[in-house]
Amino acid sequence: MTLALPPVARLSLAFSAGAALALLPPGRPLPAALFLLPLLAALIRPFPRPTVIVRLGVVALAGFGSGARADSMAGRCPAEAASASEVIGYMVASPLRGRGTFRVVDGPCAGDVRVLVADAPGPGVPVLIRGRWRDEPMGRALAVQDVTPSNGEPAFLPGAALTRWRGHLTERLAVLYGPRAPMVSALTLARREGLDPGLREAFARSGTAHLLAISGFHVGVIALVLVVGLRRLRLSRRDSALGAALGCWGYVALLGFPDAATRAALILTAVAASRRAGRPPARWGALGSAFLLLVAADPRHLLAPGFQLSFAGAAGLVAWGRGATRWASSFLRLSHGPASAVGAGVAATVATLPVVAWHFERVSLVGIPATLAATPLVVAALPGALASLGADALHPAAGRFLAGGVGLLLGALDRLTRATAAPEWASLWVPRTWVPVAFLAAWGGGSILAPSSGRVVVRRGVGLFAGLAGLVVWPALVGIQARGTLELLAIDVGQGDALALRTPRGRWVLVDAGPARNGDPGGHPVVRALRRAGVVRLEALVLTHPDLDHIGGAAAVLGTFPVGRVVDPGLAAGKEAYVDVLEAAVDRGVPWQAVHAGDRLDLDGVELEVLSPAALGGVEGDTESNAASVVLAVRYGLFDALLTGDAPVEVERAIASEVSASLELLKVGHHGSSTSTDPVLLARSRPRTALLSVGRGNRYGHPAASVLARLREAGVEVHRTDREGSIRVVARQTGEMRVEVERPAVR
């Protein structure tokens, strides 16, 4: 079916298409195709007049210019690592565990930046801070060295007063709700600091995270309460709707104008104003207007997952809400009310499915029923929580009374969420590579079969076949493309090691599994990276030595993938994590093998030879775990790589004579510590490229400046996970190779 989009919707699509082209990082054509192809199709179907195409082209150019300007402005801050900065602004919220968000209003950059601060002022209090930039796991942050009151507030300090008020309300919620205060803060004020990670994970697995995060749903609940109140004052329906829409802006302002809430307020205002003027509301026009205003205000919204989810869900409701409601009414035999709820849930879920799968690589299988069950609790708890704050301002006892009732609702919501998230099948992890092909196949099939000729059943069947065929063809094409190459994937696990190898015939070996992570094992970065790469089985899991930053994720890997064998140096360790890996292997019947120098594993023309340890430890008689690291030489035709684990200089010197004299790839030992990367080894092997697996802003000071200097003097090209994310090396038997990084390095 071809959608008859109003002019404002087409303008918003053209503007955002241009802005997206300017904002998307270079070398990422896939997101561009995902975003732009449906937009272009919506713009040109039905085919408009040439003058209209010219106008849309001009608007797209304006969007490109706006996106380029926003991108250049964002690039000015943060500054270079270790450089000093002095900025004026205020904390957006109280920091958690020494980390928070600071809104800069005067200084070398503007906007929200991450800060590391030990003693911060309250939210919304204008201050001048001095510090130095440093790399952190979530990106660059300003390590605050000095905080002083600003010399008078800047002439224009937007949002500071509301931020102070929001901070005060957060403190009152802590008094009223105790341990449940973080959930109430997230539900009412869009503040999720201190929220229990287990509960956050449960909301994500159950597909109900949108109920916890402020969205258009929350604004709609507030609007409904306001409409009921205004109707009690005997206002007309049109006046009540307009008054409720305007009243919602006060709530949105208190929240700090988050994307989803602002979008909902804009749409409510447009629809209410249209009805007040006696005109039928244009749903696509209202949605397009809100989209255009927000993108024009800040084109960087386009790349935010929350923004994409918000508008995808709203677009799904507009496009498919009525059809889904009719389906629920006829097929499920539901009355109008339940059918509307089910139809809205289905429409929004289907529309947001590609966005959720792309960003989070997870799809909840219980999202719709869990949402239907949890929605009444949220609808009752949200106005109740706000009412408890109002009552608390009048009399604390009244606030506590209302909070007690709301607490019962929140307890029920907590138990429901954890129960629906508990089954292992509740959340399905999907490789990111499946998302574009399924999305484009379904969209392309639907576009081809859009004409009304032909039987409906036949058209739907062919469209479904096109989508399923895409899921089958895509992995086959990827497999064909991979034949004849060896892939090494250095996974960004922070301060730790995890490197996966794919043979030319698609078999995988994992060398180390990074540090442990709390929560769902499927969410471990190693598991996610392997799923994203299409791994279904590991031929071997090599644990170079029993340090936590190398074996912490091994239990999660063993619990997720079939593993042919576990390989390690045979160094006994009483660490809890090591025992957990042993137990996980025993429970799944995975054989365990100790290896020493001379052992080999041949897979599809790829040879993995153990160069160390010669006996127990990397040097005779040495039982220290780093010295006992398994050192692997990887050979594929003329391509040679050396994976050194955390082996120290003494081990490197002992094996130098056995290393290829022309090494294509070196995995730098011990995360770039000064105890590794011996000049003798570099002179003997002459590596072309080096991989450094290291955490951002780690407390060890890795990589050492002396190691980087040695690599630079040897003419080695260096790639680092702390700056470039996960790093992929694809090699051929001729010795040729190419390096792909997850993100451009920030130097």
Q: What do you see in this structure?
A:
By secondary structure, the protein is an alpha/beta fold. Strands 13-12-11-10-9-8-21-22 form an 8-stranded mixed beta sheet, with no helix packed on it. Strands 14-15-16-17-18-19-20 form a 7-stranded mixed beta sheet. The protein has a 5-stranded mixed β-barrel with strand order 1-2-3-5-4. Strand 19 (689-692), helix 24 and strand 20 form a beta-alpha-beta unit. Helix 9 packs antiparallel against helix 10 (259-276), helix 11 (283-297) runs antiparallel to helix 12 (305-331) and helix 13 packs across helix 14 (367-394). The longest helix has 28 residues, at 367-394. The model is unreliable at 27-35 and 616-623 (pLDDT under 50).
N-to-C CA distance: 49 Å
Q: Order of strands across the biggest sheet?
A: 13-12-11-10-9-8-21-22
Average pLDDT for all residues: 80
Low-confidence stretches: 27-35, 616-623
Gross morphology is globular
Structural class: alpha/beta
Sheet of most strands: 8 strands, mixed
Strand coverage percent: 15-25%
Could you tell me the radius of gyration in angstroms? 28 Å
- Helical fraction equals 40-55%
By DSSP, the count of extended strands is 22
The tally of helices reads 25
Summary tags:
747 residues, alpha/beta
